[in-house]
Amino acid sequence: MASISNAFSLSLPCNRIANSSSDFNPITSALSGLDSGEFSPGRVAVSKPSGIGGRICANATPVMDQPVGEKSSGAPTIVEVDLGNRSYPIYIGSGLFDQPELLQKLVYSLRLVFRFSQRSSYLVLMGCSFDRHVHGKKVIVVTNTTIAPLYLDKVVEALTKGNTAVSVEYVILPDGEKFKDMDTLMKVFDKAIESRLDRRCTFVALGGGVIGDMCGFAAASFLRGVNFIQIPTTVMAQVDSSVGGKTGINHPLGKNLIGAFYQPQCVLIDTDTLDTLPDRELASGLAEVIKYGLIRDAEFFEWQEKNMEKLIARNPNALAYAIKRSCENKAEVVSFDEKESGLRATLNLGHTFGHAIETGFGYGQWLHGEAVAAGMVMAVDMSYRLGWIDSSIVKRVDDILLHTKLPTAPPETMTVEMFKSVMAVDKKVADGLLRLILLKGPLGNCVFTGEYDRKALDDTLSAFCKS
Ligand SMILES: NC(=O)c1ccc[n+]([C@@H]2O[C@H](COP(=O)([O-])OP(=O)(O)OC[C@H]3O[C@@H](n4cnc5c(N)ncnc54)[C@H](O)[C@@H]3O)[C@@H](O)[C@H]2O)c1
Ligand SMILES: [Zn+2]
């Protein structure tokens, strides 16, 4: 079996941050990419490297203390994405569209400037200002034909109630991944230019991951960057795509190939929107929730095992808790590695196999989360073949996915060759070496590595494909 050099362990304990700088810090290794040395799996305390940003976010709540009862509207839970002067809040809760003060919230910002004299250095406070999450007087809401009839009015009201100075334009795009393209993006720019939006305008994404990714990219590029707010309405978007600033569109030759890192001003998650989400879409989003437990948060995985029934039944408090905990995990990873120099890649557990399924089987046949679920089973199988995890983890992953009504194997039409040809052009291939996210050690630990016994990969592919 190959030794594990060029790998890094990625088991940052969620919500448990040790401040001791003497603790071994995998982040430094992660940020330095694959040249970092081996370190063994297992939970490690981390402190954020200085200079990248301040506090680790998230209002941690002990997992099992969380009540899972009826819908409770009121003050939102806030998870902070900590990115220095680009930090932003994620508001999570029921009835948030009825709380216009959240979008219209005044944000206080200080501008501090250091001035140096010959004799001594001193600090000068240059100014402070108040701004709202909604900047300027013009807002454009980007949504689609499915979501507009359900939520557009509510969102327009939340943007304008008590604030008549704001005028709201909207653009309703066709629904579907196949419209996540340049032609559809142009419709957003057409509307923005026709409406004479200026640099002080705000773009609001109202919808799932497709709308969020496209609107974010439009905001990043319109007039070289305007204010942007995410209002995600699918589980997938609420636990994953709306957080972290990855935006973009597809190219006919590949998914998400054109885009930008562009962080929103805030993310508003009204969990009531999930009431109208089809069951299959709900389960697809839960695949990403399960992923967080597997790669870095064993306690959360255990909570999911006990509460999956409630999640599928859309128990509002269970969903709110799963969304919050997922956002905390994603926010923490992103705050350490915003531009995916290493650590952020771990969020792609199962995605290399999953992407091969999406491409090989045809986009739109399986939802993203469904392909990721089958991909995670394959990554877990390979981890077990390498001797990196014990059989109990394999069983638990299978059980939870079956419980969630997600696939635990790729479509029967997938062949070893189909997997290999798509995996060969995966973004994680470096110098001809396919790097994978694999589990290693106790539950909640993973590695991102190209150093593994090739036979294990071949055996996994053979085990899951008929030919
Ligand atoms: N930026 C990132 O970091 C990131 C991460 C993960 C996924 N993504 C992207 O996200 C996209 C997938 O997102 P998705 O799963 O949300 O798909 P989606 O945006 O296509 O939404 C799924 C379907 O649900 C409908 N819908 C959305 N909200 C609804 C609601 N509340 N009620 C009823 N119907 C509703 C949509 O109109 C659509 O038909 C992909 O393009 C993927 O590349 C991006
Ligand atoms: Zn994903």
Automatic annotation (TrEMBL):
Keyword annotations for this protein, in alphabetical order, are: Amino-acid biosynthesis, Aromatic amino acid biosynthesis, Lyase, Metal-binding, NAD
So what does this thing catalyse?
Answer: 7-phospho-2-dehydro-3-deoxy-D-arabino-heptonate = 3-dehydroquinate + phosphate
Where in or outside the cell it occurs: the entry states: Plastid, Chloroplast
Cofactor(s) for this protein?
A: a divalent metal cation; NAD(+)
Q: Name the pathway.
A: Metabolic intermediate biosynthesis; chorismate biosynthesis; chorismate from D-erythrose 4-phosphate and phosphoenolpyruvate: step 2/7
Q: What class of enzyme is it?
A: lyase
Q: Its Enzyme Commission number?
A: 4.2.3.4
NCBIfam families, A to Z: aroB (TIGR01357)
Record's function text: Catalyzes the second step in the shikimate pathway.
The protein's name in its UniProt record: 3-dehydroquinate synthase, chloroplastic
| The organism of origin for this protein | Gossypium hirsutum (Upland cotton)
